[in-house]
Amino acid sequence: MNLGTERISKLLWQLSIPAILGMLSSAIFNIVDRIYVGRISSYALTAVGITMPIQIIQMAFILLVGIGTSALISIKLGEGKKGEAEDILFIALKYIVIFLIAFALLFMMFLDPIMSVLSISENVLPYAKEYIVIIIVGSIIGIPGYCLNNSLRSIGKAGVSMKIIVITSVMNIILDPIFIFVFNMGIAGAAIATVISQTTLTVYVICAFIRRRDFAINLKFRRVNCELGLLGKSLKLGMPSFYIQILAAGVNLFINMCLLKFGTDLDIAAVTIMASIYSFYHMVVIGIVQGNNSICGYNWGAKQYVRVRRSLELALFYSFLLSVCLFIIILLFPQTLVAIFTEDKVLIEMTSSGIRYYLCMLPIIGPLTVSSQYFQVVGKTRLSSILAFIRYGIIIVPAILILAPRLGINGIYISNALSDGITGIVAIIYIILELIRLKRLDEELV
To answer: Is the dihedral of CA 280, 33, 245, 147 positive or negative?
Structure first.
């Protein structure tokens, strides 16, 4: 697969389909995980949702390193600098482990204050503590593989990435009921199954990067010259994803507090289900984004701007088409979708009613995601950061403060939709200007 010469339409699907299948299997594993947890009790499902800000903050550091290093690897390969690309891969593994250890230590030191900040009720607290401690501590050995998995796609090995994600997702789906119900470990069993599957992925990805000679780069444990310089460049590229995650964690925490203020624990369970349905769609979009990012990053480094523009146009179109399709399904069959996660009739009714408000701006979220990630991979981190701030703070928090006291829970859902809609419009304006600029850059090279 040649990122610099292959026909773009073919190349985008060659890279995106394996990524989509891999991300879909990951989404299915998350959904099945929550289906099993929902069978324990509605409080257990609430525990997963209410501890989500902690996992989002942890994911911020994973994306800071993972997205940044993978983007820089694509650019360095486009420039023909294989040695530097291998140095960046080693830096990615080294610093993600350092970040994860530091995060776990801080989390355990301040466990009780953190639980207090999350405003967890007495009914939910035992489930929440048991689940999140295992997830965070286990991530030290489980998450590094997900960080390096981004680099597999950046070197055109989306098929390898898909294979291991599918295998470990199936493993988690099999292990979940065994640990939860056969071993009678409850929500702790769900967390242990997740950690085991994540660790399997980490071992596989590291071994593949060390042993596979058909890879464009290999993982080499060696002293890196200008290590801090390369790390700084990587972190700069990954910073927008970091901002997004941190802002998302803050907004998630704020929304949970508002849900408890204007509703009950069941409302948090409802939003957890909505987020699970959204994640299934979002993973497919991310698969398209990853294929597009590999093409754009490489060809940006090689100054083939016409190929960058063509890939971006196709990614925007496919993401919009996908967004519209899921939006129609949600409008027509909300109860069918929600009933997959719970047998609680009250919860089904609450979620089915709210999801139409919560995701009513879905059709433009796909192009928004493609645009934001594109700006990041070609080094325009400021634009990605602007979109993140608009979506995760400037709009949604004031909207909730105004609408929630008047409309209750529906005011929170509508605020989320307003934030998505306004940010999407801004992103579309930016990306149209970028397409015009890419055309001009290509003409200047002729």
So the answer is: negative
Q: Is the pLDDT of residue 1 over 60?
A: no
3-state secondary structure of 206: helix
The DSSP-derived string for 32-69 is HHHHHHHHH-HHHHHHHHHTHHHHHHHHHHHHHHHHHH
How far is residue 132's CA from residue 147's CA, in Å, rounded to a whole number? 20
Pull the structure tokens for residue 422: 């306004």
Backbone angles phi, psi at 360, to 5 degrees: -70, -15
**pLDDT tens for each residue of 116-149:** 888 788 888 999 999 999 999 999 998 898 778 7
Q: How far apart are CA 413 and CA 365, in angstroms?
A: 15
Residue 234 in contact with residue 65, Cβ under 8 Å? yes
- DSSP one-letter code for 5: T
Please enumerate in sequence order all residues whose Cβ is within 8 A of that of 437, keeping only pairs 6 or more positions apart, or say none: none
Cα(57)–Cα(76) distance, integer angstroms: 29
- Between the alpha carbon of residue 361 and those of residues 187, 328, 336, the distances in Å are 33, 12, 20
Interatomic CA distance for residues 277 and 420, integer angstroms = 16
Note the pLDDT tens digit of each residue in 409-431.
Answer: 999 999 999 999 999 999 999 99
Structural domain boundaries in the chain: 8-445
